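STRUCTURE:
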């Protein structure tokens, strides 16, 4: 009876071990297909949190800023706030027409898949699926703007030293600039 009990306990333990192993997901293979799947899901999370719209807004702002000098020359004056807003709206509309959300998702997921493994993508996806991850995605522009403002303040405080360092390094690299400056005097 003892031998039968030992065999029964061993068989039960083995059955439980097999069941436990069967319930564990297989490790995620780092294949191009697995990367593409995980990267696509991560890009979907980013899009759901407003990533595509944020890209359009930032792109329009950058394009409008780059166009501002040409606009001043063409108009012969500085554009007013309403005109600046109109130019940004034009740029945003043009960007949206040229780059659809689907194309944006494909591009973003391609970059993710190129630089992260399938496991890393799955981990990032798990984080960004959480409430904290969603909040972080949603605060992207606020965090970026805050960091730019904070860094701007630091750079402003060191403006003189920064200008001297840049001027000195440029003069060393391009001696003809110093010669031209001396000739102008």
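SEQUENCE:
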């Amino acid at each position: 009876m003892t031998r039968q009990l030992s065999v029964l306990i061993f068989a039960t333990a083995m059955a439980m071990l097999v069941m436990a192993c069967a319930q564990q997901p297989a490790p995620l293979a780092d294949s191009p297909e697995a990367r593409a799947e995980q990267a696509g899901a991560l890009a979907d999370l980013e899009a759901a949190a407003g990533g595509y719209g944020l890209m359009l807004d930032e792109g329009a702002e950058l394009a409008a800023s780059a166009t501002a000098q040409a606009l001043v020359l063409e108009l012969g004056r500085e554009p007013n706030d309403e005109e600046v807003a109109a130019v940004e709206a034009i740029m945003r509309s043009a960007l949206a027409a040229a780059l659809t959300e689907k194309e944006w998702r494909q591009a973003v997921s391609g970059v993710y898949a190129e630089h992260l493994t399938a496991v890393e993508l799955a981990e990032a996806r798990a984080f960004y699926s959480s409430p904290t991850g969603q909040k972080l995605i949603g605060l992207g522009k606020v965090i970026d703007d805050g960091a730019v403002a904070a860094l701007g303040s630091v750079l402003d405080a060191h403006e003189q030293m920064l200008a001297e360092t840049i001027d000195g390094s440029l003069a060393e690299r391009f001696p003809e600039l110093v010669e031209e400056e001396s000739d102008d005097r």
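REMARK: The two ends are 111 Å apart (CA to CA).
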